[in-house]
Q: What sequence folds into this?
């Protein structure tokens, strides 16, 4: 099969297939001041700022796969929430320059530990930033909105906890 036939076949299949799905972790933690911050990493191909994400994994629920991706791509471990906090769409570049639209299901991951060694160490930049800074760095508008909505939810939850004098069990970092 020559290259043109192969590309034509790929394009026909791309338009017939449903949107592909990925699982992502919105990794966050709290500073000593109580202010939340989120984790961003760079993609390996383009270097754009993203959150850890990947394909579903056999035998794992999507939030478990998201937690695994966060470990592999950023070296973080923590508590992944089973409730999806939102979705966003982006165009994933494939071989030969083709792109396919992916729907990414996003799950919160409260980071408890950062490991020194992890599978993709050295292949990405990793930064902890404010949610507002993170929203400003990502390219996808739906992800930007999801980040800001999640921060508002965290602020509401911490305000409610403070007003009811509950003791916080959230991890604190420098």
A:
């Amino acid at each position: 099969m020559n290259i043109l036939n192969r590309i034509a076949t790929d394009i026909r299949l791309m338009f017939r297939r449903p949107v592909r799905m990925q699982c992502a972790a919105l990794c966050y933690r709290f500073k000593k001041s109580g202010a939340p911050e989120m984790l961003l990493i760079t993609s390996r191909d383009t270097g754009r700022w993203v959150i850890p994400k990947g394909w579903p994994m056999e035998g794992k629920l999507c939030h478990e796969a998201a937690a695994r991706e966060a470990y592999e791509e950023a070296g973080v471990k923590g508590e992944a929430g089973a409730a999806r906090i939102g979705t966003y769409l982006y165009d994933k570049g494939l071989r030969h320059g083709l792109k396919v639209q992916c729907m990414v299901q996003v799950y919160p991951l409260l980071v408890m530990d950062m490991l020194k060694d992890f599978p993709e160490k050295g292949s990405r930049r990793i930064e902890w930033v404010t949610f507002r800074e993170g929203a400003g760095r990502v390219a996808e508008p739906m992800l930007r909105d999801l980040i800001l909505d999640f921060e508002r939810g965290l602020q509401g939850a911490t305000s409610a906890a403070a007003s009811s004098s509950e003791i916080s069990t959230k991890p604190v970092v420098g």
User: Anything to note?
Assistant: Helices lie at 3-16, 62-74, 131-137, 141-163. Confidence is low (pLDDT under 50) at residues 165-169. The chain has four helices and nine strands. Residues 18-173 form a domain with the Nucleoside Triphosphate Pyrophosphohydrolase fold (CATH 3.90.79.10).
